[in-house]
Specification:
By secondary structure, this protein is α/β, with parallel strands linked by helices. The chain is built from five helices and twelve strands.
């Protein structure tokens, strides 16, 4: 037997000591209800969060938001039937555009889910809700129904799978785009919107 064979034989003969399996990691309970927790943690990530009583209040809130930011009172809308179903007559001065948004534009989109644990919006890409919509505008306005806020990511993934239609892309958005790569200085809008505003609709 060669020295190599002796070494390999000695290694194979060794038995690993039995070790106890670690205890499953207990997921800590969130201290508050999902809506409050989501709003708090999204705000910590530099998102602006407003609560509205109904979808009918969305157009006027958007128009007021744009005027307060001294922006053009116009929004770019994706080809989403849910967006078209909003009663936009509540903001007669708000211009709606079906063209692609640019870096100085505001764009609106529905968020089908959100994660309270991290203050994250979950966007499932589809022809009606293009993934590019979250990278092109300077200001992204997300409409989120309170009932679509889940406690954790695992619950959202399970619901997406249960829908029977897996999207080709899932974008997880926590606050506006940012980077600290350049001289360790935080820069907003590096890879997407400089600002993110979330309207949580209660009903």
């Amino acid at each position: 037997m060669s020295s190599r064979d002796e070494i390999l034989s000695a290694i194979r003969s060794r038995k690993r000591a039995a070790t106890a399996r670690p205890q499953p990691f207990p997921i800590p309970a969130l201290p508050e209800d999902p809506i409050r927790t989501f709003a708090k943690r999204a705000s910590l990530a530099n998102a602006v969060v407003h609560e509205l009583d109904s979808l009918d209040a969305v157009p006027a809130a958007i128009a007021e938001l744009l005027r307060a930011r001294n922006m053009e009172v116009a929004v770019h809308l994706p080809p989403d039937p849910a967006v078209d179903a909003i009663d936009w007559s509540g903001a007669p001065g708000l211009e709606r555009r079906k063209t692609l948004p640019g870096q100085d534009s505001a764009a609106v989109n529905f968020a089908p889910f959100a994660i309270a644990e991290t203050g994250t919006l979950v966007f499932c890409a589809s022809p009606e809700r293009p993934a590019s919509w979250h990278f092109r505008p300077g200001l992204e306005i997300a409409i989120l129904k309170a009932c679509d806020i889940e406690t954790k990511l695992e619950t959202v993934i399970a619901k997406v799978k249960a829908s029977g239609r897996l999207p080709h892309t899932i974008n997880l958005v926590t606050g506006p785009s940012r980077t600290g790569d350049i001289e360790q200085t935080l820069e907003l809008g590096a890879h997407g919107p400089k600002a993110l505003v979330i309207f949580i609709v209660k009903d």
